[in-house]
Structure formats: C-alpha cells, structure tokens
NAD(P)-binding domain-containing protein (Actinoplanes sichuanensis), 402 residues
Amino acid sequence: MGDSVTTVVVGAGHAGLAASHFLRERGVDHVVLERGQVGNSWRTERWDSLRLLTPNWLSRLPGQDYDGDDPDGYMTMAEVVAFIERFAAGAPVRTGVNVTSVRRTDEGFAVDDLRCRSVVIASGACNVPVVPDFGDLGVHQVTPFDYHNPDKLPDGGVLVVGASATGVQLAAELRAAGRHVVLSVGEHTRMPRRHRDRDVLWWMHETGLWAQRYDEVDDLDRARRLPSPQLAGGLEVDLNTLTDAGVELVGRLATVRDGVALFSGGLRNVCSLADLKANRMLAGFDEWAGLTDRVPLEPTRVPAKPRLRLDLGGGEIGTIVWATGFRPDYSWLDLPVLDDRGRLRHDGGVTDIPGLYALGLPVLRRRRSTFLHGIEDDARYVVDHLIRTSRGTFDQSVSEAR
C-alpha cells in the first residue's frame, strides 16, 4: 500500500500549479506530480525563438501578475519558465515522476502507488504531435518538438505543412534564414497582431470575447478543435507577409503518392473563408467600440496557379516540418473516460467519473482557457467543485456565481 493524499494533480505546468494554488488556499492536502521539471513542456518542447502570443500585461497567474519593465512585450520561453517557476514556489511538486497508471479504487483512485480521493488531470493538450503516416519519404522530417532553429536542419528547401501559429512562425523564420520555403495551407484562423493601433488580444480581452463561457459557444466541439490563430509574439505574420518574404503558398497536403506530394486545389477558398471570419471578428470589435467605419484586412493574396504537385525526391526539398497539430496523451489513464476519438469527456473540466477533473484544455470553461491568464477562473471552479462535491455540498448555482 502506497502513500495517500486527498488530491493528486498530474502535471506541473501553469494549469496544474493553478489547481495547487487553490487547493492550498482551501487547505486541501495534495501533491503535484511532474514527469520532468516544473514547466517541462515550455522548457523542452518549444523552438528557440518562440515568444508567448499574449502581451506581458495580459500574462498573469492566480495571485501573480507580470511585474517586469516591458508590459507591451512578449515573453521568451526562458522568461515563461521563470514566471512559472516563481508561481510554483510553495507548491508540493514532485518532479521526475512519470505517471503510468490512474485507476479506480474503492476509496477513490490509485495513481501508480499513490492513493487519493480525487485527481486533477493537468498534463496538457499538446503532448503528441499529430503527423500523417506517409512512411519513409526520403527527406528529413521534423515536428515542432524536434525543431530548434534553421541551423539544426539539413541544407535545402523546406516544406512546412500547416498554417496555424506554429506553421506560419516557422515558415517566416526559415525564410528569413535564406531557405526556400513552401507552405502547405489548409483550414486556418487569420488574426492580425494589431487592430486600430491596439494588440488584437486587447480587443479579445476588453470586448469579453475571450471570456465567453464554453456553454455559450454555438459549436463547442468545433471551437475546441480550431487551429491556433496566425499570431506571433510581437510580429505581424500572416500569409501576405510570408508571400512578400518569398514563401510559396500551396494548398492543403492531400496525400503523398510515389514520392510526390499532392496538394488540394482549394487554397483560394480556405483563404477567402479565413479572411471573411477575420473581418467579421474585427467588425464585432468595432461595433463594441461604437465605431461605424470599417478597417478590413487586405485580402490574402493567393497565387494565380498554386502548384498541385511537389516531387519530394527531386532535390528541391530537404526537410518537411509537420506543423499539423498536437493531441493529448492519455495512455496512462486506465479509466473509461475517453470518447471514440481518444478525447477526454468532460463538462467544463468535470468528468463523468466522480472525483476526476481536467484543466488546461482548449475552451475548457472559457475561450481563453489554454492561455496563462485564462487558467484562474477554470482552476478556481474545478477546485471549488472538487471540494464541495467531496463534502456533499456542491451547489451549481452558487459555484457558477463565483
């Protein structure tokens, strides 16, 4: 029989530490288990030049605001790690503990040899890169987890697959380093860095769009699967700036056949749709501000005849960067709590297994759930639910009012 605590939190990133913050505040004994170091993903699974997408003035955690001298800047990864490390002070974190099993017991759960009454899963939403299986393509292949900087890649051109925040940032960096870059563009979310001389995230924050609750979102399943917006920390990066820099745009990668990458012919359509949605969002900001004139984005400039084929064995491309998304890893969960796509079933962080909770997932309780400043409301609610349910006093209406 191993040790026991009331609650085990899996993951010592900002979400798990936020849970610990409120558990400590409410006097609940608990432990936070972390496979690596505090903020491990920020330390080991990011490329060298990455900066936080949110400006510093908006980067905060429960009880800890940004207090540096550059409120309009964007943190480097080293600065994010330092920010999270400071937040971890006083939290009961056990590092270097790789959880391999969580199962039910008569009293609650067994997390490996550790017994507890409740578990908070805060292990992240981006544990495993999603890469289509085309087998050996004869070129070097990397995911954002493997990519560090252009110098680490073999010589030659680069095919970047995926045009979310990661894809456009890596395409821009590689092109700036002098590489020939082809960017495969599927469905994407266009978002300008600034609108009317303010950071676009200021508009998201002030209009309340980011605070929209999960149960008020029309298509929640889709909202939770949307590509991350085409943003970069402090830089304007979209398909037009990439085109200006010399990046070649092609359509979505449909398949690879006999060593030839085949692209969809729908590039113009997906770009038009992204432009439409971006302008609709900006118009909503203007209406909130009482502004009647409009400042539409320049339409995405799509090549007249984007090529549909690329011979991967022809020497033009030396590396493929798969910026095709991520998925969480729940292989250690021995509980019937996943849907047929392997996603965690939950209602605002509360699973249908009593005592099992989640934090840090997209649109968990608010649109801002996965961002640093978005964790406070989510963690407070989940911990409140956990405590009140364990005491048999949970009242949904009271908790929702918090």
Notes: The first helix runs from residue 14 to 25. Confidence is low (pLDDT under 50) at residues 398-402.
